[in-house]
Every structure is written in structure tokens, then in C-alpha cells.
Specification:
With 203 residues, this protein is an alpha+beta fold. It has 10 helices and 5 strands; from the N terminus they run E-E-E-H-E-E-H-H-H-H-H-H-H-H-H. A 5-stranded antiparallel beta sheet has the order 3-2-1-4-5, sandwiched between helices.
């Protein structure tokens, strides 16, 4: 049985749960903080779903966007990364941020998530890096790979990224900010612009 999506009235939400009533039946979908935030205040919603059938039970997961669903399925394809870890990662990162972190080898972006240790973070990057590199559409943003390309090109941008990492930002946060800066300017100016961007919360 495959449930592609659910459309109905929201009758309950919890810390990691949304119950959608469809045809008189309430479907309990485990979900992320991101989805819960996006559906807050809505009476009716469409969630894209994934049904997980295991020996010890059946669980339904629901997401507000197709990108978040696809990222969830990608993360749970990694050995040792179950639904709980995938939901935790997506509660702290958008699908684009997950893809950028994987593509840039930024294990810190995952290990800082509660419950995710260095071992699991390294496994996520190692097992998914090739998939992300081959298919930028997995991230929902075609600019992901070009963002990462600036990390190791020996330019002022790569110097700025290294400096931002020293200041405490993750490599993927730094790469994303630097990619928004114009070419041909010095590392110091790039760092200043990036700090403004990062402080504004637009990254």
C-alpha cells in the first residue's frame, strides 16, 4: 500500500506529530519542526507522505513539501540512520542546507544536531556525497554544487570560507554565504558581507 499524500483538516499537532482528518479518519503523521511551523494556523493542509512498514509496526510520515519528503527518504537510506535521526536533521536544516552540507563534506552541520554523533554524521556525508554531486535536484536548488565549488579553488572566497569556519560557522553555512558575494573582491570584504548576511538570518 502506498499513500502519496493526505489532504484534510488538521485536528491535532504535537511536538513531532500532525493528525490530518480525511474522510472521517484521523491519520497521525510524524513530521519535522519545519513542517509544523509551515502548517501553523492552517485549517486544511496537504502533506506528502511516506509509509514505513517494519516488523514492529507501521509509521506514517508527512511533510509540507516534496523536497523535504525526498530528503527524508534520502537520509533514511543511510545505514544506521533511522526515521528519528532523519526527522531531527530536517528539524534543524532545510533540504537545501542538508544537500550543501553533504556536498561540502560538512559533518559538523549534522553532528551539532541533538542525538547525532560524529560517527553518524560522517556516515551521512560518506554515503550520500556522490548522490548529491550527481543530482543537484535532490537539494531543491541547482546552485548547491556551484556553491561548494568555491571552497577549494584557492581564491579569496576560499580564504573567506576558512575564516568564517574559524569564527564558528559551519563549512556549509560559510559556503552558502560566500556564494552570494560578487567575484573580484578581497577576502576581507567578502567576510564583512558574509557576516552581515549570516547575522540577518538570510542564510
Amino acid at each position: 500500500m502506498m499513500i502519496y499524500s493526505l489532504t484534510g483538516k488538521i485536528i491535532h499537532t504535537g511536538s513531532d506529530l500532525c493528525v490530518v482528518e480525511c474522510g472521517g479518519v484521523g491519520y497521525a503523521c510524524k513530521t519535522t519542526f519545519s513542517t509544523l511551523g509551515q502548517i501553523s494556523g492552517l485549517d486544511e493542509v496537504t502533506l506528502y507522505t511516506h509509509l514505513a512498514v517494519r516488523e514492529d509496526g507501521i509509521e506514517l510520515f508527512g511533510f509540507y513539501t516534496k523536497e523535504e519528503l525526498e530528503c527524508f527518504k534520502l537520509l533514511t537510506s543511510v545505514s544506521g540512520v533511522g526515521a528519528r535521526f532523519a526527522l531531527a536533521i530536517l528539524s534543524s536544516n532545510t533540504p537545501s542546507q542538508v544537500a550543501l552540507a553533504i556536498a561540502s563534506g560538512d559533518t559538523k552541520a549534522f553532528s551539532k544536531v541533538k542525538g547525532i554523533g560524529n560517527k553518524i554524521a560522517q556516515r551521512v556525508v560518506m554515503e550520500l556525497k556522490d548522490k548529491i554531486a550527481k543530482d543537484a535536484s535532490l537539494s531543491g536548488s541547482e546552485s548547491i554544487i556551484s556553491d561548494v565549488a568555491s571552497i577549494s579553488d584557492g581564491s579569496a572566497k576560499s580564504e573567506a570560507i576558512a575564516a568564517l569556519v574559524v569564527l564558528g560557522y559551519t563549512q556549509s553555512e560559510a559556503a552558502s554565504a560566500v556564494s552570494r558575494c560578487a567575484d573580484g573582491i578581497g577576502a576581507d570584504e567578502i567576510i564583512k558581507q558574509c557576516l552581515r548576511l549570516l547575522a540577518s538570518g538570510r542564510i
